[in-house]
Structure formats: C-alpha cells, structure tokens
Specification:
The protein has about 160 residues and is an alpha+beta fold. Helices cover about 30% and strands about 35% of the residues.
Length: about 160
C-alpha cells in the first residue's frame, strides 16, 4: 500500500473471525445511530452471533481492512450481491469502505458479472450511491420482529458478453 495509507485490504483469514463480530456490532450501534433508533439497532446487531456470522462469511468472497494490527472493517460479496460492508466507527470516513468495496467490484468484473446488487441500509445509502448504485426502491427488512428500512440497489458493471 502507499505510505500515506496506514491500512491494508486483504482476504479474510481464520484468525480474523474473533474480531469481526465486534466490528459488525460497533458499526451498527454507533454508525447507524442517526438513521435507526435503539430498538432497531439492537435487533439488527443481534441478527448475527459469532457462529452465524462465521457461517455466512464462509460463503462468497470476504475481504478485511487491517489498520496497524487492528481489524477495522470487512466486506463480503456472494455472487452478484454485495452482502456486507462494515467499518468500525473509530476508522470511518478515511476511505476504508471504498477500498473494500472496490476490491469486491474488481473481482466481480474479472468473473464477468454484469451487475451488482445490494440491500443498503439507510446508513449506507449515500455510500452506495457514491459508488454508482441506483436505488430500485425502499424495502423492509425484518430483524426479530423489528422492521428496518433499506433500499434495493443495483449497479451495472458494463460487462458485455
């Protein structure tokens, strides 16, 4: 990485798994406080426990962002869906989510995937718009009986086969 970027993007390793749940929960509890109330954030963050998160991350491609020795973010793509992009709030707004996403988009292009979809939280909506996604409409996600608004979004990668 360039010397001005103190973090690296790399594939998920088994040793990372213990730290991912904390990044996931902190990103939701702190990072989404402006868009979701406490009940919604609690339901969302309880939506994954250690075992279910590990099981989910065994699918598709997952990359992590490491800053010094700390794991500060991760992102996952399953086929043509960007399933997760989470950055710890202490490391937000320095380009980590952008680099995580770009890695996944590049690998999708290499695979010849013509477009990507995501179900963007209200917190991530502007990020995905910035990355070139268009909203196809608002939808509701149910997390333990609690509804959370989000948007189905799509981005054409311009692959013509």
């Amino acid at each position: 990485m360039a010397p001005f970027l103190p973090f690296q993007i790399r594939p998920l390793e088994v040793a990372d798994l213990n730290r991912l749940l904390g990044v996931f929960r902190d990103a939701i509890q702190v990072g989404s406080a402006g868009e979701y109330d406490q009940q919604q954030r609690d339901a969302w963050s309880r939506g994954q426990n250690y075992d279910s998160l590990i099981s989910l991350l065994s699918e598709g491609e997952t990359v992590v962002a490491q800053w010094d020795d700390e794991l500060v973010g991760f992102a996952q793509r399953i086929a043509d869906n960007i399933n997760m992009v989470y950055v710890h709030p202490d490391s937000a707004r320095v380009g980590i989510a952008t680099l995580l996403y770009q890695h996944l988009e590049d690998s999708a292009r290499v695979e010849g995937i013509p477009s990507l979809t995501t179900h963007a939280s209200l917190t991530a909506l502007e990020f995905f718009r910035f990355m070139g996604f268009d909203s196809e409409g608002e939808e509701q996600a149910d997390r333990g009986g609690v509804n959370l608004k989000r948007h189905l979004m799509r981005k054409s990668l311009g692959n013509f086969q």
